[in-house]
Give the backbone structure.
Amino acid sequence: MAQIIEITDFNAPELDVYARLTERQLQGRDEHATPLFIAESPNVILRALDGGWEPVSLLMERRHIAGAAREVVERCKDISLYTAELPVLTQLTGFPLTRGVLCAMRRRPLPEAEEICSRARRIAVLENVMNPTNIGAIFRSAAALNMDAVLLTPSCCDPLYRRSVRVSMGTVFQIPWTFLGEACQDWPDPGMERLREMGFATAAMALRDDSLSIDDPRLRGEDKLAIVLGSEGDGLTDTTIADCDYTVRIPMSHGVDSLNVAAASAVAFWELGRR
């Protein structure tokens, strides 16, 4: 059983992870000793635990200890559980807690793309997708609709950002993912070359005169296919589109020209991920 501690001092350093550390500090970039992330809601935390992620501490409403978060508490032994009523927790964190439960967890070193894609046939590649809600929604679709892995360019939002994790419903802990390089100059080259060396044909989701319809049989016929999706505002860069083997569009009606990247990803994964 976790050690239950009533919150009496907002300034206690052990609460920094929930109240004062920035995302940059959580990632360990500003001399913060242990890179961490925050998982929110019992279901998301349980998926992280199922995936072997290590909990550091818990923060939750008192009523959830023996209620909605009972299984979480039972599985998180030998860590501190900080508790108070919801108004106190909202004041501490600055936002209303989903289901009144947060868990600080340790980050893991990211794998190489080649490691997680060694047996993959269909992967998603995200270019400069910066909105955490979109990242979370894309991961949920990727997990549900037969993607084997997700690769992100260095400018993408961190999938372990609290809101991304929550919107994904914990699927960031179920589908393999990593960043395709560490700096902006790692994409599109040499990142695109790495995809080719792994044997992937590349399909850029973009509106161009020469775009193939997403149901074109040539796409389904590819043994290994990387579906490349671009940023919320500008879509894929011209350089990326030119470097891809295919340019692919989703047919539209009623004069609509495009879908949000999260919605487009779900359509693309459904059509191109079928085995």
